TrEMBL record:
<dbReference type="Pfam" id="PF01071">
    <property type="entry name" value="GARS_A"/>
</dbReference>
<dbReference type="InterPro" id="IPR037123">
    <property type="entry name" value="PRibGlycinamide_synth_C_sf"/>
</dbReference>
<comment type="pathway">
    <text>Purine metabolism; IMP biosynthesis via de novo pathway; N(1)-(5-phospho-D-ribosyl)glycinamide from 5-phospho-alpha-D-ribose 1-diphosphate: step 2/2.</text>
</comment>
<dbReference type="InterPro" id="IPR020561">
    <property type="entry name" value="PRibGlycinamid_synth_ATP-grasp"/>
</dbReference>
<dbReference type="Pfam" id="PF02843">
    <property type="entry name" value="GARS_C"/>
</dbReference>
<dbReference type="Pfam" id="PF02844">
    <property type="entry name" value="GARS_N"/>
</dbReference>
<comment type="similarity">
    <text>Belongs to the GARS family.</text>
</comment>
<keyword id="KW-0658">Purine biosynthesis</keyword>
<dbReference type="GO" id="GO:0004637">
    <property type="term" value="F:phosphoribosylamine-glycine ligase activity"/>
</dbReference>
<keyword id="KW-0464">Manganese</keyword>
<dbReference type="InterPro" id="IPR013815">
    <property type="entry name" value="ATP_grasp_subdomain_1"/>
</dbReference>
<keyword id="KW-0067">ATP-binding</keyword>
<protein>
    <recommendedName>
        <fullName>Phosphoribosylamine--glycine ligase</fullName>
        <ecNumber>6.3.4.13</ecNumber>
    </recommendedName>
</protein>
<feature type="domain" description="ATP-grasp">
    <location>
        <begin position="107"/>
        <end position="314"/>
    </location>
</feature>
<keyword id="KW-0547">Nucleotide-binding</keyword>
<dbReference type="GO" id="GO:0009113">
    <property type="term" value="P:purine nucleobase biosynthetic process"/>
</dbReference>
<dbReference type="GO" id="GO:0046872">
    <property type="term" value="F:metal ion binding"/>
</dbReference>
Length: 441
């Protein structure tokens, strides 16, 4: 069986790698892929990004199933186009993907179906937005309505920051058409976690819990990024909280989509804020797996991913069983110089080839590539080609051990100007140590 994974980031590397481990898979094509997928056994990159060419390729190669990784092809309607051509594909339709592609659509949808989320107002006029800010508490969140490559959310701790964000998006058009409309919402405090499920539009299969770290610097300082690291499982999500999230958020969303005649097949990611009183509120939806959450989640997944996806496509997800490694997994992102504002490219990455050779015979770690390319020379030099370059991911008996193992991998890799957070997983580690101490006392 031949499969096709759409995308070229760390999430797609992890998905393609996991799919290639299935005994029924002969080859996984990745479009367009990266240096990591180029060097991975069982994977092959194809330099195609246009939907018509991808459909032609899938037909020519007799691709059994296509899996969509990133949001841009979903927003462009790749699932609708493949299905219209009679091709099997895993991912939500363009209409369903509005939960991610339009913050305002998502907010209105949550209001209609009583899904807990922060209060908000939407604006296209900067003056009205400024007036609204002056009437609100100090801390606010400004969000561009459309897709903005991780740059469309500004957490403003002061009114001055909020006003600047409004001017940047609505007046200066820094985000282009993605910022034609904004929402201004209340700032929620608590612990942020990622809650991901698979669905066939009727049945729901929860995925292992996780937490990512959005800020560039340690201790949650610096600008927001696409994610500087993640780990799984998230110990804050107790069985009771898990049940609350399913009951109050996930179930109403999936049933609400059905009520509105919107077919949703794929992964659904809910970015949640767990407030001090133990209640979960939706910060955002992604209509795909998170990145970098996917990397530790795939390292922990023991079940055949292909079988799970087949169940979702066939509407039989209620018959699926999913098994996880009981150990924790943690991934640390190495970002390029200047990320996220002015990313530098084409720096040579050292130390990767030895680790790539070692991971072929070691299931306890994996280096997932995101912004990398092959230089094309005989010595197979690998260069940086994006903001988030690599995600060094490792297993451990607990979060702290997984953290130590991941940072040992980071020590073996070098490229000029790289940026790394040194505290990935700290909230989970502190929580586990607190519980351990309470048990002793």
């Amino acid at each position: 069986m031949k499969l096709l994974v759409i995308g070229g980031g760390g999430r797609e590397h992890a998905l393609a790698w996991k799919l290639s481990l299935s005994s029924r898979v002969h080859k996984v094509f990745v479009a367009p892929g990266n240096a990591g997928t180029a060097l991975e056994p069982g994977l092959e990159n194809i330099p195609i990004t246009s939907i018509p060419e991808l459909i032609e390729f899938a037909r020519k190669e007799h691709i059994a199933i296509t899996v969509v990784g990133p949001e841009i092809p979903l927003a462009a309607g790749i699932v609708d186009a493949f299905r219209a051509d009679g091709l099997k594909i895993f991912g939500p339709t363009q209409q369903a993907a509005q939960l991610e592609t339009s913050k305002i659509f998502a907010k209105k949808f949550m209001q209609r179906h009583q899904v807990p989320t922060a209060s908000y107002m939407s604006f296209t006029d900067a003056e009205l937005a400024h007036q609204y800010i002056d009437q609100q508490p100090t801390s606010l969140v400004i969000k561009a309505d459309g897709l903005a490559a991780g740059k469309g959310v500004i957490v403003a701790q002061t009114h001055e920051q909020a006003h600047s964000a409004v001017d940047a998006i609505l007046v200066n058009k820094d985000l282009g058409t993605a910022g034609c409309e904004i929402i201004i919402e209340e700032f929620l405090q608590g612990i942020e976690v990622s809650f991901i499920v698979m669905t066939d539009s009727l049945h729901i299969l929860p995925i292992a819990t996780s937490q990512d770290h959005k800020r560039l610097y340690d201790e949650e300082l610096g600008p927001n990024t696409g994610g500087m690291g993640a780990y799984s499982p998230a110990p804050f999500i107790s069985p009771d909280l898990h049940a609350q999230i399913m009951r109050n958020i996930i179930d109403p969303v999936i049933s609400g989509l059905r009520q509105e005649s919107i077919r949703y097949t794929g992964f659904l990611y809910a970015g949640l804020m767990i407030t001090e009183d133990g209640h979960a509120n939706v910060l955002e939806f992604n209509c795909r797996l998170g990145d970098p959450e996917t990397q530790p989640i795939m390292l922990r997944l023991k079940s055949d991913l292909l079988t799970l996806i087949e169940h979702a496509i066939n509407g039989t997800l209620d018959n699926a069983d999913i098994e996880w490694d009981e150990r924790a997994a943690l991934g640390v992102v190495m970002a390029a110089h200047g990320y996220p504002a002015n990313t530098r490219k084409n720096d040579v990455i050292h130390g990767l080839h030895d680790l790539i050779d070692q991971q072929k015979n070691n299931d306890n770690f994996h280096i997932f590539h995101a912004g990398t390319i092959m230089k094309g020379t005989e010595d197979n030099e690998i260069l940086t080609a994006g903001g988030r370059v690599l995600c060094a991911t490792a297993l451990g008996e607990n979060i702290k051990t997984a953290q130590q193992n991941a940072y040992k991998l980071i020590e073996k890799i070098y490229f000029e100007g790289y940026q790394v957070r040194h505290d990935i997983g700290y909230q989970g580690i502190n929580y586990q140590e607190k519980i351990k101490q309470e048990a002793i006392e």
